[in-house]
User: Fold FAD-NAD(P)-binding from Streptosporangium subroseum.
Amino acid sequence: MSAVAVVGAGPTGTCLVERICANAAELLSWPSLDIHVIDPYPPGGGRVWRKEQPDLLWMNSTAADVTLFTDESVQCEGPIRPGPSLAEWLGRDPGLFAPRPVQNAYLSHVFQRAVKTAPRGVRVHVHATRVLDLADVPGGQAVTLENGRTIEVDAVILAQGHGDVTPTREERSLAGLAAGSGLHYVPTGYAADLDLDAIPGGEPAIVRGMGLAFVDLMVLLTSGRGGRFVREYDEELVYLPSGREPLLHVGSRRGVPYHSKTGYPFRGVRPPVPRFLTAKALGEGPWNFHRDVWPLVRKELAFAYYHELITAHPKRSRVGWEEFQEAFAAEEWGSLAMRRLIRQAVPRHLDRLDFERLDRPLEKIRFGDSAGLQKWMHGYLATDLDRRADPAHSADHAMILGLLSVYGVLAELGISDPWFHGFFSYVASGPPGPRLEELRALAKAGVVTFLGTDLQVGHRDGRWWAQSPSVPGGVEATTLIEARLPAPSVSRATDPLITALRDRGEAEESAGLLKVRPADRRLLDRSDTPHPRRFAFGPWVVGGRATGGFARPGFNAPLFRHADALARIVLSETVATQISHVA
Assistant:
C-alpha cells in the first residue's frame, strides 16, 4: 500500500489532489494509492474560502476568470481533465463577481469530482484536523495529527496556503498602547476572521491600507452595518448611512486604492509575450530585482501594452506594428532611443505607458487642505472607473495579461519579490468595479475620508493620530485598523507543523517564504539540503506566488503546470515503498 499526505485542503491542496489522481494511473505500476488530505476545514475551500462567510464578501475575479480544471492551453505532461469554469458551473453571467460562499461550493465540487473520478485503487481520505509534526521513518514519513493519530506515508506535500503569524514588534507595541489607553486596535488579518463589533459607529477610525483587505473591511463596516446603496435618477450611486458605521479615514503608501478590474471582455489578440524576460537575458543569479529584473519586466509589459494599442487602435499611432516592434526590440527600456521611439510612435501623452505615474499617482502632489485632496480623489476614482470600463483602453487589459505572463516566468525562474507582488496586485488584482464605485459613494457621503500617500501612524495624548505629506495637519481617532493581510513569515508562523520543522532546522525561510529547491519543490533545511520525501507548494513557498491565485481558463496557468509537475515527481520518485498505516 502506497500513500501520500497533502497538508492543506484549500484551492492549492485541491489542485494537487486532482493532479495526483489524474497522473496516478500512468505512473504507478500497482493500482493502490491512499491520498491523505489533512485540514481542519472542509476540502475545496479550506479556511480562506470556507462557506461560513457573509454573502457581502465577493470574489475579486469574475466568474469567467476562475477555474480549477485543466484545459488544452495547459502545457504539462499529465492528462488534461477539462471541467467548467465558475461561470459555466453556475450557468450565470461570465462577468459575475460571485459571493465567497458560492466559490466555496464550486471548490467543493472540484474536490469531490477529483475523488469520484480517481482511478480504481486510488482512495482519498479526509482528516479534519491539523498536522503537528513529521518524522523520518524507514522508507517514508510519519505524520502526527492533532487528533492523536499517526499516519505513515511515502511523501508529504505542504500546501497550507496563507497561514497565521505572530504579531510583529510594531503590532505588539500598538496592541499594548491600545490596551493601556482604552483605544481600539484591529490587527492584520482576513476581514472575515476579525472581530469588528467593538469598532464604535459614528466615530472616526484610522485605516492603514487601501488594498483588497480594505475593500472587505469597508463592506463589512458599511453595508454590513445596515447602510444601503441606491441609484439616483442620473444613475449615480449614492450611499444612505445607517448611523452605525464608523467614519473611515484611510491612507496608505500609495494613497490610492488598487485599480478596479476591467469591466469589458478582451477582444484583442493575446500579446506575444514573454519575449524579453528570459533566463538567457537575465544571466546567472543571484539577481537584484530592481537592477536586473525590473527593466526586463517593464519592457515586457510595455511590449504587451503597445501591441494592443497599435494593432487594435491604429489611429492612435503614427507607425504600424511591424515597424514599431522591430525598433522596440532593439532598444533597452528607459534609454533615450526608446523614449524617442515611443514619443514618435504614440502622439498622445495619455496613451503612453508611464510606470512611475501608474505606480505612484499621488507622488509629489501636495494639497493646501483636505478638501483639495478629497476633490482630487473623487476625480481619480471616477477616471479609473471610466477607463477600466472602456474598451478604448484595452491596452491596459493587454498589459494585465502581460503581467500574468511575467508572473509565470518569474515563478519558473524561482524569483520572488515582495515589491513586485504588491505592484502586480495593485494593477492587475484589484477589486470589482462596483466596489470602487461604492467607495466613491461612501466618500461623497462623508463616511470615507482620504488621508493621502506615505501615511504615518502613531500614538499621542491617549489617541491614535495619522498624517501624510499630501496634506497639512492630520487626524485623531480612538480606533486604528490595519487593513492588510500579514506578510508571509516562516519565522513568525503559528502553524504547529511549520513551527516544529523550523525550530529543528528542518525548514528555512527566504524573504519570509518557505525555502524549497525550485526544480522539484523539495523542502530545504537550514543547510539548504533538500529532503527526499518532503515537498511544499503554494503562495507561501519561494517561487510559488504565481500559484496562489485562481487560474484563468485558456491561459496555461502556472498553478496547473507546477502542480502537475510536482504530482508526477511525487508519484514517480517517492511513491515506491509499501508502507503500512499506523493508527
